[in-house]
Amino acid sequence: MKHKPTSTKETSVTEIVLPIGTCPLDIFTFQCWLKTTHGGHIYQYVSEPTQTGFSVQINSLGHIECAINTTLLRIEAISTLGGLNDDHWHLLSICYQYNEIKCYIDSEITHIQQQHIPLITDGASYSDFLLSNKHIDAIFDGSIIDTTLLNRCLSDAEIFDYYQYPYQQKVITENNLHIYQKRHSDHGETVNFIKPKRQEVMLIIFNDTEYDFKKLTPSSNLFLKQLPNIIPANERCAYIIESSNECWPHFIYQVDYIASECSDIKISVDIFKSLTPYRSTVHINAVDELESDCLINQSTETRLSAEIRISENTVITQAKHFMHFLNEVRSYIRAENIITNGRYYSEQQFLVSTGKQMINYQLACQLFNRRLQKRPLAIIKCTSTHDVKVVYKAAIDYNLPISVRSGGHDHEGESGQTNTIVIDLSNMDSIEIDPISGIAAIGPGTTIATLTTALAKKGLMIPHSTTATVGISGFIMGGGWGPWCRKYGMCCESLLQAEIVLGIGETQVISAANKPELLWALKGGGGLSYGIVTRFFVQTFPLPPNLLKFELEWNCYQPETQTLIETTPTMRLLERWEETINADNTSCLLGTNLKIQTKSLASTMAEACSKQGAELTQEPNRIGTCITDFDPNSIKHNCVMYGHWEGNLASLEYFINSQFSEVGLKPDRIRIEPLGGLTQAYGEQLMESWNRESFQCLQQSQAALQAWGQNLQMKGVKWQDLSQPAPHRVTSRLADQTGLKTGHINLLESLTSTQTLEGNRQLGLFTYVTLNAIAGDFYRKISESQQKQSAFPYKEKAYIIQYQAWWNAELEEKAQLHDNSVYTRINRALDWIDACRDADIPNTSGAFISYKDKTIPTSVYFAQHYAQLQRIKGAYCQDPLNHFRSRKSII
Predict the structure, then answer these.
(1) In which band, very low, low, confident or very high, does the pLDDT at 132 lie, cut at 50, 70 and 90?
(2) Contact status, residue 704 vs residue 746, Cβ threshold 8 Å
(3) Do 226 and 290 fall within a single domain?
(4) What is the pLDDT of residues 378-425, one digit of tens each?
(5) Strand locations in 674-809, DSSP E?
(6) What's the burial of 266, exposed, middle or buried (CB within 10 Å: 0-12/13-18/19+)?
(7) pTM of structure
(8) Are residues 365 and 446 in the same domain?
(9) pLDDT category of residue 172 using cuts at 50, 70 and 90
(10) Do both 785 and 740 map to the same domain?
(11) CB atoms within 10 A of CB 513
(12) Any idea where the FAD-binding PCMH-type domain is (predicted)?
């Protein structure tokens, strides 16, 4: 191409004289480097003998437009993406072959729209290519370099190679760098030659490993400054890579390093520095034993700034930290109390494990909820507060996460998380009782069975759980609902002091006089969040002289077939039970719950069809199942009311008659335990059935069950599977102070579902809801100041609604492993739990943290107290990095 300057007084432009050729444009590649903020014509070529030509330009939106005249066709194309006039350097490549155009920007193909226009008159479009002085507005406004036109079609690889290494390619034409002058310039010039700019990259390298990295790649004379021969271990250093003038419009810098003491540890750094800032990149590649990351801080036309971090793989780092941790705690903790899956040898960096050790580890990992399987790094059984401090501080010093376990009954398994150090408190089960004050100092690993038995020997008690194997720690910090709730409130209301290990490893005894807000948080504000409690000081109360427990059952199951014997509508029972717990004349009812079994919708539909003699239509109900002519006033479910009664047998029988039998709700079965616990075996007579179902009981013979059911009093029958660990899932919400009202219908709909299949019980799969009474004398009569003494947020609620699904509780089921028919139904049961969690039930809200469902937001569990609990954790726990954490802890 030649350029002829044309000058005027006001403007100066550069006019392009067309290249004239003799070769027809049957096949070609056009390339150039360009930079512009406006656009205009870039290049034109005309073959006079054949009257064929080629023209390319950039329009005002940065789209590429090109036209090719052949002997028969005019082919026009425009790129669908614009923005090429962004004032950055770009490589434009256009290939033509077989009447098709391909367009590339910076070696990447870009989509274009093409149209083929037949030429009617020879040479009719030839003049369209002629650009002369009259086309001043169309002249390219920007910079162009290395314009080439080849009589062949370059491949994708060739175009990419040229883009990557332009300074290593041989320029085919003799074109130089030409700048077309901007319009309205002050004076005219012919052509400016731009000197290539040097480019540089600044790398800040954080080498967090223990390795010195030695350079393998030889230095290149294309760079004035390069990375050093050694990148030192555990240091942060800044380096400059600067190109020579020959590296234009970008450069590639590649270098490899090897660890000086380990030939298997290698890294490589790949830098692509472009005059187009957003195309500049830095990549670091490392072997699996390492982890690497790169952050670009700044990218301009001439300078790229980035940070590179090289670290050991987190798995390897954790393994090393874990070995250091074990070496430290072995100085303080007995070997039999350190449970791992093998013996670690830090110097040789290997693990040895015996079969016995692996079995012991697997047993120690097991959670009460067998649905969940976790693999902690280690389980450390502590026997004292000093042990807890040693283990906790060592774990934090070596950057290892912790879990804390006492009874291990967390429904979501948060007390024994995978890849954590489990601080096991089960051996810290001391019980000391002050004979004067009646205050019991209780170790966090003490179970309810052990504790209640010890207290009963002294004629004392606390508001305990119905489950014997629950540990006091999680129970009391979660609130602590149980069979004494109506008279003494949640167990947390009786907590007076607590010994706690805070975030810096310091031990304090908190009370109303020392950090009362922190004590308030421990009373129902959830476990682990605030520290590790190593002792609870709980106020006891005297056991009454007469104490009974009872069960009232309606709509019993036929023992042999497990079909429902329907007698009483569930709605009437539910309404009557609500009236009973809200009544002011039922003080002797110390605590109660109502268990309602689910009913298969299929069986409900079949019964309705049988009665009506017609096929019924189905409509969706409010929880996503299908319901058919659902009558909430007549539907019948198996219902059992459990209770704790202060008084003699006559007074209990009067209560049953007056509250139920005389109003048309006579129980089908009545079971009473007259001793109720005023013995040394109190802990063996806890009310496990309040929240569980027994598959062993279901499997007994019809005759034995019928004979037992005819007796008014139970005679010490205890089904062992009621307290056994088993897979399960629960979710919860709470009923308003005045009860569900219109929500009764929705609750009963949730219990009549297509997800709960007929025959589940025969396979040991139990799905039901338990309604646990909160309403009673305690919360009805406490003063406003007493209301503020605990973080339990649901003092004004009537009861807790707990949906539950349990299976494989009995040994026969467990022995079948995965060859168990129950697994054909589990997913449906879990879907039922999800549907109940999401169901729209009027006059309900919240959720109870002890009945944990990880899909419910943490703030919902703690309701109006959540923000205050967050503030207390920040103010008192000395745990700024939140080491005391689990999925549902306060954050």
Answers:
(1) very low
(2) no
(3) yes
(4) 999 999 999 999 999 999 999 999 999 999 999 999 999 999 999 999
(5) 728-735, 752-753, 766-773, 799-806
(6) middle
(7) 0.78
(8) no
(9) very low
(10) yes
(11) 9
(12) 372-543
Residues 733 and 759 in one domain: yes
Pick the closest to residue 555 from 671, 667, 642 (CA basis): 667
Query: Residue 700 falls within a domain, yes or no?
Result: yes
Segment 552-582, tens digit of pLDDT: 999 999 887 888 999 999 999 999 999 999 9
**First CA to last CA across the chain, in angstroms?**
70
Return phi, psi of residue 71, to 5°. -70, -25
pLDDT in tens, 444-456: 999 999 999 999 9
Residue with tokens 């006492």, as numbered in its chain: 406
CA atoms within 13 A on the CB side of 858: 15
β-bridge pairing 799-806 and 728-735: antiparallel
755-776 per-position pLDDT tens digit: 999 999 888 899 999 999 999 9
Which H or E run contains 434? Answer: none
DSSP 3-state of 158 = helix
Question: Which residue, chain included where needed, has tokens 């001439």?
Answer: 302
Please report, for residues 598, 600, 603, 704, 722, the alpha-carbon distance to residue 766 in angstroms, rounded to integers and kept in the order given: 8, 12, 16, 22, 12
Q: Two tokens at 725?
A: 């660990």
Contact in structure between 807 and 698 (CB atoms under 8 Å):
no
User: Among residues 744, 807, 735, 803, which one has the least CA distance to residue 769?
Assistant: 803
Buried b (16+ CB within 10 A) or exposed e, 287-302: eebbbbeeeeeebebe
Determine the residue type at 444.
P
Task: Report the alpha-carbon distance of residue 193 to residue 197 in Å, rounded.
Answer: 12
Residue with tokens 């950090």: 515
Strand-pairing partners, residue 109, are: 104
Does 537 share its domain with 664? Answer: no
**φ and ψ of 514, to 5 deg:** -130, 110
pLDDT at 246 over 70: no
Q: Are 251 and 304 in contact (CB under 8 A)?
A: no
Give the range of the structural domain holding residue 852, as residue numbers without chain letter. Answer: 547-856
Percentage above 70 pLDDT, the chain? 83
Tens digit of each residue's pLDDT (9 = 90 or more) over 64-105 = 999 998 888 889 999 998 889 998 889 999 999 988 999 999
Residue 682: predicted pLDDT: 84
Higher pLDDT, 355 or 181: 355
* Number of domains within the chain: 5
**End of a domain among 379, 407, 424?**
424
For residue 561 the two structure tokens come to 């077939």
- Do 270 and 294 lie in a common domain? yes
The pLDDT mean for the chain works out to 86
Sheet containing strand 532-539, edge to edge, reads: 431-433, 439-442, 532-539, 495-501, 507-510
The confidence score (pLDDT) of residue 392 equals 98
Segment 457-482 mean pLDDT: 96
In the predicted structure, residue 698 carries a pLDDT above the cut 70 = no
Closest-CA residue to 109 (of 91, 85, 88): 91
The two structure tokens encoding residue 495: 């907590």
Secondary structure (3-state) at 462: coil
Q: Is residue 707 part of a domain?
A: yes
Dist. CA 452–CA 269, nearest whole Å: 66
What residue type is 248 in one-letter code? W
Which CATH number goes with the domain that contains 438? Answer: 3.30.465.10
- Do 438 and 537 fall into the same domain? yes
> Does the residue 188 lie in any domain?
no
CATH number at residue 227: 2.60.270.50
Sheet containing 200-207: order of strands: 223-225, 235-243, 200-207, 303-312, 290-299
648 and 516 in a common domain: no
Q: How far apart are CA 74 and CA 125, in angstroms?
A: 8
Closest CA to 562 of 600, 595, 593: 600
Q: What average pLDDT score do residues 269-281 get?
A: 90
Which of 405, 424, 443 represents a domain boundary (last residue)?
424
Tokens encoding 377: 């790094």
HSE (side-chain half, CA atoms, 13 Å) at 776:
25
